[in-house]
C-alpha cells in the first residue's frame, strides 16, 4: 500500500509516518507534501492507495487540493479542528482523526480500508466504487487564493458575492465590502464554482445567489441586479440569460 502524507508540520508528519509503519509494516509512505501546490503537483504525477491529510495548511485548506486534481483513493483527514467533518466526508474521506494522532486512530483507519475492500468487488473497480460513495468525482472549490499585498490568502467562496471582469482582470467582491484581484479567468472561475451558488449573468460577471437583493427590469428586455456592493458598472443580466437566471433564483 502506497501512502501520501499531506502535513505542513514536519514533526507531526514524522510521528504520523512512524505510527503508520508500526500499525501497517507493509505500508510504504511514498511522499510527504507540505502545501496545496506541492500536493497538487505530486498527485498530477502519481496516485497513492491512501492519503493521510491535514486540513489547515499554510496556504489554505487541503480541500482545495481535491478540487484541483482528481484522486482515486480514500483520504484519512488528521486535524486539530472538528468543524470540517461534513466537508471531509464529501471529499473521499473515510476517517476523521483529531490531533494528536494516536496509534489506535491509525489502526482504526487501516481497518476501515480493509472493510471497504471486502464490501466492494476486488480489482481496479474498488477505488472507483469507494469514490462514488464518499464523494463526487468533480468537486467544486470551497475556497480560493486571493493576492493580498505580497502574499496570498485563502477566502471561502461562500464569503464572495461577485466575480467581475474589469480591464482584463477578475476581481472578487466579498460580503465584507472588499475588492481583491483573482489571477484566474472568469471562465476558469465559472467552471470551478458550484452552479447552485454562482450564476454567470453576462460575459463579465458571476454573481452569488446570496448577494442578490433585488431584480429590476431594464431596457431591451434585460434585467439589473441590486446588491450591497458598489461596482463601477451596473450588474445587468443579458437578455438571453434572463429566463434561466430567474429560474435559477427560484431554485432551493
TrEMBL record:
The modification 4-aspartylphosphate is found at residue 54. The keyword Phosphoprotein applies. Residues 144-251 form the HTH LytTR-type domain. It comes from the Bacteria. The keyword Metal-binding does not apply. Residues 2-114 form the Response regulatory domain. GO terms for molecular function: DNA binding; phosphorelay response regulator activity. Keywords: Phosphoprotein. This is Response regulator. It comes from Maribellus comscasis.
